[in-house]
Each structure stands twice: as C-alpha cells, then as structure tokens.
Amino acid sequence: MIDIKVLKADPEAVKENIRKKFQAGNKLDENGNPGVNKLPLVDKVIEVYDEYCKVKLEGDNLRNFVNVKSKEIGALMASGKKEEGNKLREEVKKGKENLASLEEQEAKLEKEYREIMLVIPNFIDDTVPIGKDDSENVEVERFGEPFVPEFEVPYHIDIMEKVKGIDIDSARDKTSGNGFYYLLGDIAQLHSCILSYARDFMIDKGFTYCIPPFMIRSNIVTGVMSFAEMEGMMYKIEGEDLYLIGTSEHSMIGRFIDTITPEKELPKTLTSYSPCFRKEVGAHGIEERGVYRIHQFEKQEMIVVCKPEESMDWFHKLYSYTVEFFRSLDIPVRTLECCSGDLADLKVKSIDVEAWSPRQKKYFEVGSCSNLGDAQARRLGIKVKGEDGKKYLAHTLNNTVVAPPRMLIAFLENNLNEDGSIRIPEALRPYMRKDIIKVPEKK
C-alpha cells in the first residue's frame, strides 16, 4: 500500500509502476482480451481523497464552531442574556445536525479512498526484472550439481507407496476429497523430522521460535495480503469474523498491528510453525494423485520486522538460509528472481527457491522469499520509534524455511536408491534415528 501523499505528489510514477506490473490492460488474459487496468484508479483516488479532505476540513471547522459556541451559551445564560443564549443554542443545534451529516460523508469518502488504495500495487524495487508472468522470471544462481540417476525415478506418490508411507485414496474418497492425504509410518516420521530440523536450524540462526494462532480476523487478512490473493487462497469460517491462515506469516505479522516498537529492539527475527490452508482458486489445479498442490500442509516460516535501511540486507540473508537448509539435505537448488508481473501487489521484491527434480529433469518451487517494504506496516499500523523520538513505518519480510509436502518430493527424488529405499542425509539422522528408510518385505 502506497502513501496517499506520495501518490498525489507523483501520480505518473504510480502509473508507470502499474504498467511495469502489467496491470494497465497491457497483459492479455487466457481468452486474448486485455487484462485488468488499474491506471484509472490513480486519478479516481486523487479525486475521492481531495473530496474527503475538503469535507474533513469543513467538518473540523464546524466542530470547532460548535465547541466554542456551546461554551458561550452557558456564559450568556448565566449573565441573564437568555434570548441571545437561546438563539445561539439553535445555531449550535443546527450545526450539530450538519456536523453529523458531514461526519457520515467523511467516513464514506475515507472508506472509499482507502479501498482504492488497497488495490493499487506497491512500488517494485528498481532491481526487479520486468516481465509479464512467471515464465519471465530470471535465474540468479545454482547451488549443488543437478544429477539424474541411471535408474528411472518414479512419481513421488509411487515412491511413498512403495514404503507404505501414504494413503491418498482414503482421504480423497472417504473423508475429505481431492487435495488431502494420510501420511503413514516412516514417511510421516520423515515429514515431522524435517519440520523439527527446520525449527532447530532457524533457532541456531538466532530466530525466536513461535507457534501462532491458526485463525485470524478479517482486518489482519486485508492488512497482510492483496484482495486477489485473499480471494484465491483464504478459507472463511462461516458465521464468524475468522479465516484459516494460508501461511503463518499472516498471523505473525498481524501480531504487530498498531504497535510502536523502540528502534533499539529491532530487528524482530521470528520463525514459526503452522498448518496452512489454501483454496488454490485460479492455480494450476489440485492434483488428484499428488502432494505438490494441496489444500492443507505444514510449514516452517521466517519473519523479520526491521528498519527500512536494513530490509534488503535481511532479504538476501533470508533466502540464503533456505538455500543452506536444502543443501544440508543434499538437495540441489537454484534461486529465481520474480519478475514484475509475477509479484503480488504488496511485494517490493521476491525470490523463489527451487529444488532439482531428477524425475522431471528440471527445478520446481519449494519456497519464496519476499520483501514487502512498508506495505503491510502501513495497512496494520506497525511503527518504530527512533532514538530521536520520531515515529516511522517498519519494513516486513517473510520467507519459507521448508514446506514438507513439496520438500518431500525433492527429498525423495534426490535421496532415492534404485531398490526403492531412501537415504537419510547426515543432518537428519539424529531426528530420524536411522540412516535409511527400507522397503518393507513382502509377506
């Protein structure tokens, strides 16, 4: 969310940013028609905001008049000037009626301009590559040598089924539908051990471990994400002002709503565990037989609240931690910078971490690191008090340490033996208490 004063001072810069994000009707939809055009919103919000300021000033002046004259009434009545006092009382009464109307109009205009501002995208960083969609994201660096074994690598569900580690049929056909599964035995243990290792990995980096609420109110949802993301992701609890979280970042950033943190207490570095729930509307589709795109999964996240001048340094640190984590488990990865058209509206800059798939012979996304600048802080009122006593907006960042469903795919493919058994890398052995997952003997 951009500062309205910045938008008014340079509306053309805001419009150019909209063009760079391909939200100016300069991106065709799947039917070949021009997509969303947010350019008119810039002029519209200025018009509404100016009207709001005009009404607010009129209301402030009338409010001052009512307050001053109300005090005069008492003085007039006390001095025996009842006629003048009664006349002034009628003026005050009429002023209060007009003030009530102005306040109603002011609240309506404020709501309107704020709703428009929520839809206008945040400024992207100058270093973000310009591109229409994720097909134009740019590879940054590779870590570890991608390899393809001499034997054929099966589909990840087949690997898990061979060691009796998953039951999709029961979840899909009996209890829940597509996008759900049961993990069993060694695979269930592997899933939990990866999360435990990720927790300890981040604690060793100096992050504070947290388990947040898994439901949040609507004002937190609109504070941490764009409307488009909300519509495609969030599950609403019927009859309550609560949503299931799509990632623990939502709940964790929401914790700082309307807070003023002394500068000396920054940065806040937190790592959180949570289940995540996603509708995946508009995505590539829920897999009927797979765990790559699903409705429910678990994740270890990292969140930073910091001073603006430190946010880019933290951005590079955060995604490097994910790279280090995956390499400690013998999984080759690469970093991929998200282009302008692939950035969600609140993001200033974002880098995906992708793991190597020996089966597909390509990389696939396993985590995403985002710098949101002051966008979330502006929406939620997250402020910092400097040494000089002045207050300013914090910057917020988030990054995936690991989300085991996708991590499991990468882990299984990169640590698979030809006989179907699965190697356990050294870093994970203290958690699994074994160095291999064996294929059960047939009875």
Descriptive overview:
With 443 residues, the chain is an alpha+beta fold. Helices cover 42% and strands 19% of the residues. The protein contains 14 helices and 18 strands. The chain has an 8-stranded mixed beta sheet with strand order 1-11-12-13-16-10-9-4. It is elongated and about 105 Å long.
> What is the multimeric organization of the chains shown?
single chain
Shape assignment: elongated
Strand order of the largest sheet: 1-11-12-13-16-10-9-4
Report, as a whole number of angstroms, the end-to-end distance.
61 Å
Low-confidence stretches at least 5 residues in length (pLDDT < 50)?
none
Structural class: alpha+beta
Number of helices: 14
Count the E strands.
Answer: 18
User: Mean pLDDT score, rounded?
Assistant: 92
Rg over alpha carbons? 27 Å
Strand content: 15-25%
Profile the largest sheet.
Answer: 8 strands, mixed
